[in-house]
Amino acid sequence: MKKIFALFLLLPCFAFAESGDHYLGGSASPFGFGGYYKYGFNSTNFWLSRLEVRGMYEHFGETAQDIVLGKDTTITLDDIDYKLGLESDAAGVVFDFYPFKRKSVFHLSAGAYYTDYLVSTTASPLAGTTLTIGDNTVTVNDLLVRGAVNWQNDISPYLGLGLSATLGAGITLGLDAGVMFTGSPEISIDYRGTVNGGTDVSDVVDQADINKEIQNIEGDLMAVDMLPVIRLSLGIRF
Predict the structure, then answer these.
(1) Is the per-residue pLDDT at 90 higher than 80?
(2) Is the dihedral of CA 192, 197, 198, 201 positive or negative?
């Protein structure tokens, strides 16, 4: 549903627009790759004559997929191997206001996105590594730690600014930068395997220990209640 939400919301504009009021193209941002439709109001009203509205959808990968290469990315820090993944969907409606005049270069933006943004990690500490989980200190035997981070708001307000230019034959280039107010991050952690020479980790680490770890991580990330967004776009005006 969200894959077509933003574009269908704007379809009634086709009935009232004149030539040069429509834009259609592709975009890339931290949420992945997708497309947009933009409509410029053809009006003599001061505010409407400087206003355009965009509907867009962007998507990237699966949580087991590498952010860049399409496979699991593995990094090693402090004797722990981490595999990172990203899954994201974003459908939004944004209003662009041109303070000078529409079709000039600079604009201010405000809108909202319906987002599903999940960062996952799988960690494999090397055997013999000492870990503190909650109130317990354990020695790793064969342990797998799975974690995920997502954000509180399904609908996230957006504020930004941008530059857009129309080249020959109606080709358009755009650069937008702003922030999305996502709410505080939410953490989940799961431990599976053996520690302390072969004891199942669930016999040593209980839910209270896991909750304490989650609280510690969420405390560190509590200030991260917004995400920066930089978006590049290429399209055509017609």
Answers:
(1) yes
(2) negative
